[in-house]
Amino acid sequence: MSQWIFVYSFPLSKDLGALARFIQRHQLPLRITEEKNQQLLLCPDASLAEMLKPLLQRWDSGELDLDQVQMQRAEERESGSEGGQTSAAETDSQLGNTGDNPGKKHSDAVSVLPSFPLDRTPLSLLLIALCFFGWFLQVNNLSSGLLIYPDPNAADSFSQSSLAWHLERGQWWRIFTPAVVHFSLPHALFNALGIWILGRPIEARGGSILFVVLVLLGAAASNLAQYFWQPGIRFGGMSGVVYALVGFALVLQRFQPLWRDIPAGILTVALVWLLLCALGVVTLLTGVGIANAAHIGGLLSGLIIALVYSALGGPRRFASA
After folding, report:
1. Where is the chain membrane-spanning (predicted)?
2. What's the whole-model pTM score?
3. Which of 64, 74, 254, 291 is deepest in the core (most CB within 10 A)?
4. In angstroms, rounded to a whole number, what is the distance separating the alpha carbons of residues 206 and 176?
């Protein structure tokens, strides 16, 4: 594992949003941490660290805008020139030119979504697999043991409801497992994509314990909300968990502006989709019933968990670029 080298320090009051965007835009191997009431920038490459120091000093003093600075990777020099290949990245015009230069090749395109090693997101990968496993169980009529039985009369008396019947027999898992069952392959694909985009960044940054809490509470909140709202229908799917992740990300990005693994546009699309579903537009156009209460219950649970997590100082873990 690389040894992280100190590059530069900033006071806690310094807004490092521009620096975080600069790091992500150029995919630089840098990390922002908080230690001893300071924000520290770390790097595993000594040559890159030395190259960045003048740039950071000028930005810290207000001489330049990092959002306007362009960087390019080292490239082979023209044949016949000495030195062969530069050893470190360079900025346009010795870190000072903030304009575009069409004569130079810019750095490789940056992916909108960050990539994480698979071993940092094992639970997200498990959830993705469960989406398709739940669809397989449903197709083969093997999912009844995971669902809450529909009960049109549950509103009259909870003690006589199907959910109470399940719980009296120790079948507590049914509070969570409807999230596994998917009634169509597109439904499984859609939720698997949501877990890939939203779940992996949260698990990679926040850790598996936080992710387990989010998934379990999100599943329970969404399933119970849907059951009590429409007890007479059968429901399933991981959409409620996905919306718990949406709610968590919405709040966390407010408390930790440096965290931008999940683009704000994706969260906006998710909220617009929830609204279209709740208004009945999606059902009208597709003829497919939507578990709207599950979406809303999951979203609210994610918002609440994020608020508690932020109050406990958790967003610090999401500051690393």
Report:
1. 125-149, 175-197, 209-229, 235-252, 264-287, 293-312
2. 0.68
3. 291
4. 22
